[in-house]
TrEMBL record:
EC number in record: 3.1.6.1
InterPro entries documented for this protein: Alkaline_phosphatase_core_sf (IPR017850), IDS (IPR035874), Sulfatase_N (IPR000917)
GO molecular function, one term: iduronate-2-sulfatase activity
Stated name of the protein: Arylsulfatase
Family label: Belongs to the sulfatase family.
UniProt source species: Gimesia fumaroli
Superkingdom of the source species: Bacteria
Keyword annotations of the record: Calcium, Hydrolase, Metal-binding, Signal
Domain Sulfatase N-terminal as annotated: residue spans: 36-399
GO CC annotation: cytoplasm
Gene3D superfamilies referenced in this protein's UniProt entry, alphabetically: Alkaline Phosphatase, subunit A
Needed co-factor(s): Ca(2+)
Length: 494
């Protein structure tokens, strides 16, 4: 063989070897590109007060449209009716019966259930599992308990460590003129905050003109920018986008207040205090400065104005969701991106003379859940299945099939994929929620609340939810058979 032929042969062999090395890399990149992205939108204190849930006086066209494109869950219940503990259940996939987190807002980094800063064999949280599987993970806003994913106290003290160790490639929350996480969470206009030392603590403020004059507008803007960057990457992405409103204080642009001022807002249907050990004085709500007298209960005019303020904030957030979803469409990402909208718990709007959350009743435990999974979810399906927040972790694993699926603890939820694709209509007979020592059992028709102890459950309350979501009449004495039936769902005492 002449020298020229030998040279050609060597070139061919070298090219073949390079091709063998290149093809697996391209195959992996293609596989990652085909995996669905995840856009997980958390909205703080969002109860099912939306048009898609049949509430006519609410202006929520963006969320209503998303519900028409995906699956709307009409019986979704959180594990705990407070921000931190509810998000702990979501992100770890663990029920309070196993984690012991039935109230704490600092569960991620304090106490026996605190997450380890040292990487464990199994993923401790949902975004960590996706990150280990090659997803680019981005946190914007409130996904865990703190407003930006960093551990600081309300007053700014703390070391700023990651609240979810090993979970996020980017902590991308913009601070604007508020300068820090809890500042943007408790924000008023012009860089002022409930936690800035000035003493401002007004219940509501509707003065700014531009969406970006307030934090949620900045969050939407940042999310759109990051989506543009993520589109250019080979990796699939998991974006957690946590909007702050309608959490207190009620602050939104003037246009949202003006729009809702033209709408007739009904008073709460059952504004009377209930005889229950779980009724509380709404301390979080009444700690704010109000332009009307702080009576318990508030007079009807004050109730309606407060309800209007909450719904103005819902309208503001709905408009921010629309911007992000529009960007997702324009970037050509919608067809391969799962979108989840989740409310971290419900909220009392004067119902039962309660405001805020922190009680094991229907209004605080029931929250918004919408899932649009391209190629899987049935458009416009309204599911009445009893689902829990802990179901979201296994659902996203089932939909995305990440390479790494080992978790530090077993997941306690059930995948909702069979509900999304219509192959099942139910996944459980009863949904369980927790609040301190109380366990609340919800079936399709009733809610039982029981205080657990070393002996038999006590302080029993039974409500017929098919009649009203509010705890109007305790039926324990009238329906003892129903009580015994629901008690069977309580976890066995260890």
């Amino acid at each position: 063989m002449n020298p020229v032929s030998i040279l050609h042969l060597r070139i061919v062999i070298l090219a073949f070897v390079c091709l063998l090395h290149w093809l697996p890399g391209q195959a992996i990149a293609a596989q990652q590109k085909q995996r669905p992205n995840v856009l997980f939108i958390a909205i703080d204190d969002l109860r099912t007060e939306l048009g898609c849930y049949g509430v006519p006086h609410v202006q929520s066209p963006s969320l209503d449209r998303l519900a028409s494109q995906g699956v709307l869950f009409t019986n979704h219940f959180v594990q705990v009716p407070t921000c931190g503990a509810s998000r702990y259940a979501l992100l770890t996939g663990r029920s309070p019966r196993n984690s012991g987190v039935t109230r704490s807002n600092q569960a991620f980094y304090r106490g026996k259930s605190a997450l380890s800063a040292t990487q464990t064999v199994g993923a401790q949280t949902l975004p960590e599992l996706f990150r280990r599987s090659g997803y680019h993970t981005t946190c914007i806003g409130k996904i865990s308990h703190t407003a930006d994913g960093r551990v600081f106290e309300y007053n700014g003290k703390g070391d700023g460590r990651d609240e979810l160790p090993h979970a996020w490639d980017d902590l991308a929350t913009p601070f604007g003129s508020w300068k820090r996480g809890w500042g943007i969470f408790f924000a008023y206009a012009n860089g002022r905050s409930r936690e800035d030392g000035s003493g401002i603590r007004d219940l509501m403020e509707f003065t700014v003109e531009q969406d970006e004059d307030l934090p949620d507008g900045l969050l939407a803007q940042q999310a759109i920018q990051k989506l543009g960057e993520l589109k250019q990457q080979e990796q699939p992405f998991f974006m957690g986008l946590g909007f702050f409103k309608p959490h207190l204080p009620f602050v939104a642009p003037e246009q949202d207040w003006e729009a809702m001022s033209r709408v007739t807002i009904p008073p709460p249907p059952h504004p009377e205090k209930v005889n229950s050990p779980y009724w509380h004085k709404s301390g979080e709500f009444y700690s704010y400065n109000m332009e009307y007298e702080k009576t318990r209960p508030l007079d009807q005019a004050a109730q309606i104005k407060t309800r209007r303020a909450y719904l103005a904030c819902v309208r503001y957030v709905d408009r921010q969701v629309e911007k992000v979803l529009t960007a997702l469409d324009k970037l050509g990402l919608s067809e391969n991106t799962i979108v989840v909208v989740w409310g971290d718990h419900g909220w009392f709007l004067g119902d039962s003379a309660l405001w805020a959350k922190h009680a094991p009743f229907e209004r605080a435990l029931k929250s918004t859940l919408i899932i649009r999974a391209p190629g899987v979810s049935q458009a416009g399906l309204k599911s009445a299945a009893l689902v829990e927040t802990v179901d979201l972790y296994p659902t996203l694993v089932d939909l995305c099939q990440p390479e790494f699926q080992k978790t530090e603890y077993p997941l306690d939820g059930i995948s909702l994929k069979p509900i999304l694709d219509g192959s099942k209509t139910d996944v459980r007979e009863a949904a369980l929620s927790y609040w301190n020592k109380a366990i609340s059992v919800r079936t399709k028709t009733h809610r039982l609340i029981a205080t657990t102890g070393k002996k038999q459950p006590t302080k029993l309350e039974l409500y017929d939810i098919s009649e009203t979501p509010d705890p109007v009449e305790n039926l324990v004495d009238k329906q003892p058979e129903q009580v015994q039936e629901l008690l069977k769902y309580l976890p066995s005492r260890k």
